[in-house]
Amino acid sequence: MTVEMREGHEGTGPGxxxxxxxxxxxxxxxxxxxxxxxIAAAVPAGAHILELGSGVGRVTxxxxxxxxxxxxxxxxxxxxxxxxxxxxxxxxxxxxDLGEKFDVVMLASFLVHAGDxxxxxxxxxxxxxxxxxxxxxxxxxxxxxYHTDVPRQRVSxxxxxxxxxxxxxxxxxVNSVHVEYxxxxxxxxxxxxxxxxxxxxxxxxxxxxxxxxxxxxxxxEVWVRAVPKA
Length: 230
What we know:
This protein is of the alpha/beta class and about 230 residues long. It has 2 domains: about 10-15 and about 25-30 and about 145-195; about 30-140 and about 195-230, Rossmann fold, CATH 3.40.50. It is built from 6 helices and 12 strands. The chain has helices spanning about 25-30, 35-40, 60-65, 75-80, 115-130, 200-210; strands at about 10, 50, 70-75, 85-90, 100-105, 130-140, 150-155, 160-170, 175-185, 185-195, 210-215, 225-230.
């Protein structure tokens, strides 16, 4: 089946590629980092989490094992087909309206840096629309040097290399980022558009959606807990 790629996005390598250039088989191989621990420390035990952009469930599955209930949303049916144990919903995040509220809404994977500002606005409105009274929104944002410390690479203990090869301005505050994933038996690449946001710009984007920062959860301020504005 041919998938229409989103403008400015491209992916190469074995297996299915999603509209934003992500390779399904690649994400099945990537290990989970410290995300589940960061999330678990920031929200009530057993919370019902609306995970926006779940992919194949790298974070979903550890959260389920940790006693959380997860509703997983992704625009890729191929990604969602790899999930087990979560309720799944296939569709664009920016258009989502389930008519439900959740203890926690999570927007990870730097999705808040979508190159298209209207998509970002829609995603943040989705977060605000679905968070319950007294609940919170967890957002993962880019590190301060994400677009300037390039090229850079990291070798995983499991034996593959992730290389951020380039981040080049393409106009209107947007960069085109090219990433390579080098495994002993396969190589994947992804090119995507990302909009760098200063801390002030990020907080202004939250405010526009009716949200405000409650706490920066990690020393690098990549993980943020936001709440509806009082």
